[in-house]
């Protein structure tokens, strides 16, 4: 059976993991902050009249409300990596400045009263950083406490910069880390960031030209926000893609999908996050699973959706699969290497009942995901407005859905490079009512990460779900298929059992 990982691990490939499972070696803590000159100019930076992206604007409002309620800030993304060689802090300072200048969104900060959100843009000439020594550490617990505190204070988009950057220096090598408010970053941005900074640093110390991904034009997130808003203005409730989105929503109960098993949480209730990591396939298993999917007329990703749909059919009698996929929107223009929040959400839906086996379900799963990619062109604000206009319950429309994401880390330009391959990615951990699944693939494995509610019943139900999902993958790899006999209402039933 696959192992539910709850401890630490060292990266052989770039991985998404839990923040507290990252345990870099000790050394001297270095921090980079804006110079006094840069801070003065940032504080006086004028309003920028352009629009924000929908996700960015709502995120900033939500963070403001959380702060007003005294909730700790955990709405950030982070990454870390290790680099060989003694650290040249002056060269790294120059590399950091070049990195920020390449990404216009990283020169922005925001203020809000909870309703209106105003963006400020720092002039590029004022961007400058300086390094300070913050002390030493030898115990991993010390570093965790330090990193949590720094990200909570500094990876906040309502001041500039909305990120925290630092290093751990030791003889013969150093660790880099970067934490950024989600308003300015996404998972792909984190996978790109430290690889780019390390490449720029290498250029500074060697005099060699940096690789294309660290020197080519990136596109601006501010331009992306303008394009998204322009696209939203062109969509109305009668637009074919919007109508299709609404039809899927209404035909699946008129509510966003949640975790299929009862986790014992009341509507609106959340619990502290407990991270889970589950290995699903090794390299050999990936190759066999991929071959089965392609022979059945699909793709590796359609196989993931088929396995998830079978699990939910057998455990929860969901005869139609309905999920929300996280999809990148970087191809709206040339934003492939840019830093920002380039994401949208789209429904993946297809029938499950009637499929006799995993391979029978592959074409439907492929069609469902292909449609989702097309519907992801509809901005989220257009969908939400149409849903509310149709009379849908606002609580159902705005509820945070259970999400599914897939990242193939082999496709990033830093793949094969030291800083990228040693990278770890993580997010802040607050509270949740979901058990969203982040499927990640690298050269050696397919694994699932999830931030789950840390309650007794939720953990029992999630363990049951994950073990069944693993068994579907395992059967497909071993036997070349998985028979689908129908729902199997066994095991812990939340509807019948609520634990204290």
Automatic annotation (TrEMBL):
Q: Spell out the InterPro entries in the cross-references.
A: CAT-like_dom_sf (IPR023213), Condensation_dom (IPR001242)
Question: Which domain of life does the UniProt lineage start with?
Answer: Bacteria
Q: Name one GO biological process term.
A: lipid biosynthetic process
Q: Which Pfam families match?
A: Condensation (PF00668)
Q: Which residues form the Condensation domain?
A: 82-384
Gene Ontology molecular functions: catalytic activity
Name of protein: Condensation domain-containing protein
């Amino acid at each position: 059976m696959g192992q539910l990982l709850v401890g630490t691990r060292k990266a052989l490939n770039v991985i998404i993991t839990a923040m507290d499972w990252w345990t870099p070696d000790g050394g001297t803590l270095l921090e980079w902050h804006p110079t006094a000159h840069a801070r003065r100019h940032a504080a006086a930076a004028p309003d920028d009249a352009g629009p924000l992206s929908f996700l960015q604007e709502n995120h900033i409002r939500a963070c403001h409300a959380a702060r007003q309620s005294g909730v700790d800030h955990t709405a950030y993304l982070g990454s870390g990596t290790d680099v060989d060689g003694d650290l040249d802090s002056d060269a790294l300072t120059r590399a950091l400045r070049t990195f920020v200048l390449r990404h216009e969104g990283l020169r922005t900060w925001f203020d809000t009263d909870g309703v209106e959100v105003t963006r400020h843009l720092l002039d590029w000439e004022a961007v400058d950083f300086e390094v300070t020594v913050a002390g030493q550490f030898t115990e991993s617990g010390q570093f965790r406490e330090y990193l949590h505190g720094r990200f909570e204070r500094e990876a906040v988009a309502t001041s500039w910069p909305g990120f925290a950057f630092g290093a751990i220096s030791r003889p013969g090598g150093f660790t880099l880390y970067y934490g950024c408010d989600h308003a300015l970053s996404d998972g792909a941005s984190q996978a790109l960031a430290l690889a780019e900074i390390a490449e720029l640093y290498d250029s500074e110390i060697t005099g060699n030209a940096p690789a294309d991904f660290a020197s080519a034009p990136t596109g601006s997130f501010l331009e992306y926000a303008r394009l998204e808003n322009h696209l939203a203005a062109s969509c109305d409730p009668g637009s074919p893609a919007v109508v299709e989105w609404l039809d899927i929503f209404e035909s699946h109960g008129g509510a966003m999908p949640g975790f299929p098993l009862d986790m014992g949480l009341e509507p609106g209730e959340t619990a502290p996050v407990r991270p889970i990591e589950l290995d699903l396939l090794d390299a050999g298993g990936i190759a066999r699973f991929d071959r089965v999917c392609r022979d059945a007329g699909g793709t590796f990703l359609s196989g993931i959706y088929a396995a998830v749909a079978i699990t939910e059919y057998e455990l929860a009698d969901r005869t139609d699969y309905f999920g929300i996929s996280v999809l990148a929107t970087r191809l709206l223009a040339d934003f492939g290497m840019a830093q920002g929040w380039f994401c949208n959400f789209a429904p993946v839906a297809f029938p499950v009942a009637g499929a006799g086996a995993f391979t029978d379900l592959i074409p439907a799963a492929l069609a469902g995901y292909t449609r989702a990619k097309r519907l992801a062109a509809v901005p989220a604000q257009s969908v939400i407005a149409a849903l509310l206009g149709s009379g849908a319950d606002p609580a159902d429309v705005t509820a945070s859905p259970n999400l599914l994401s897939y990242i193939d880390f082999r496709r990033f330009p830093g793949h094969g490079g030291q800083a990228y391959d040693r990278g770890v990615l993580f997010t802040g951990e607050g509270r949740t009512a979901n058990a969203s699944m982040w499927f990640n693939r690298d050269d050696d494995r397919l694994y699932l990460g999830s931030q789950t509610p840390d309650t007794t019943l939720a953990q029992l139900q999630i363990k049951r779900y994950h073990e069944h999902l693993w068994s579907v993958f395992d059967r497909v790899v071993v036997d070349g298929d998985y028979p689908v006999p129908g729902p199997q209402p066994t095991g812990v039933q939340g509807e019948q059992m609520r634990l204290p």
